[in-house]
Specification:
This protein is α/β, with parallel strands linked by helices and about 230 residues long. The protein has 9 helices and 7 strands. Strands 3-2-1-6-4-7-5 form a 7-stranded parallel β-sheet, with helices on both faces. Helix 1 crosses helix 9 and helix 3 packs parallel to helix 7.
């Protein structure tokens, strides 16, 4: 069971002492630019190179969550491409049944997201024209066949990336990078409340500390004992 916000803050105060000042400042800088206003979902991606490059683009553009739909393909990460990005992101996997896309869509809608399919649909608009006032989840399909028919027909909106060359499409990692850069750049130039809430910041920062400190599980248990002993009345 994860600690509540107040306990997390107490843990962070103590665990911050175990990392360098430079890393503490870096955490603060990165968290100030993280967002959950935009997220992405990957349906049945199977090439480790592309999967890993998408994670790297999410980290670099400040998108905190990646929703991974595993229908027939397991999502594997190439560490040489991801460059450690998975340590700093929240990965949500959907793989409990044969076809998991409806489960992912329902979860995202429950979190307030509009489902935006990236596809050359007849109703699609250019990525730069996508409204950003509402939370949006961009859904990307497999490298060869794109999104499944159900994923397309049950989306709320459709976007494309305008192209002027001979080839038919960008690969998925490039598509994700272009879309995320476009949307996050517009978000940061807007007056939309796109930043993380205080409790989200503390939860993510604690996870980053766990990933950065050796034997963090043991250290955290000892700190929790001290925190709860201090709360007990005399």
């Amino acid at each position: 069971m994860e600690p509540d916000h107040k306990v997390r803050l107490a843990l962070i105060e103590q665990m911050d002492k175990l990392i360098t000042p430079r890393r503490r400042l870096l955490f603060e800088k990165v968290l100030a630019n993280r967002t959950r206003h935009i997220t992405i979902a990957l349906e049945n991606i199977y090439q480790p190179h592309n999967a890993s490059a998408v994670l790297r683009s999410c980290d670099l553009t400040g998108v905190q969550d990646v929703h991974i739909i595993e229908n027939t393909n397991e999502y594997n990460v190439n560490p040489d491409v991801a460059m450690g990005a998975s340590k700093w992101l929240n990965l949500h996997k959907y793989n409990s049944i044969d076809y998991n896309t409806p489960l992912a869509y329902q979860y995202l809608r429950d979190q307030g997201y509009k489902i935006v399919a990236t596809t050359p649909h007849h109703e699609s608009i250019a990525i730069d024209e996508l409204p950003i006032t509402e939370k949006a989840a961009l859904v990307f399909g497999t490298e060869l066949t794109g999104l499944t028919e159900w994923a397309i027909s049950n989306a709320d909106m459709y976007v494309n990336i305008p192209m002027v060359g001979f080839t038919e499409s960008y690969n998925i990692s490039v598509s994700a990078a272009i879309c995320l850069y476009s949307l996050t750049r517009r978000l940061r130039a807007s007056e939309i409340s796109w930043k993380l809430e205080e409790e989200q910041v503390s939860a993510i920062r604690l996870q980053w500390l766990r990933n950065s400190i050796k034997k963090s599980e043991h250290i955290e248990k000892e700190l929790l004992k001290n925190i709860f002993s201090e709360k007990k009345p005399d």
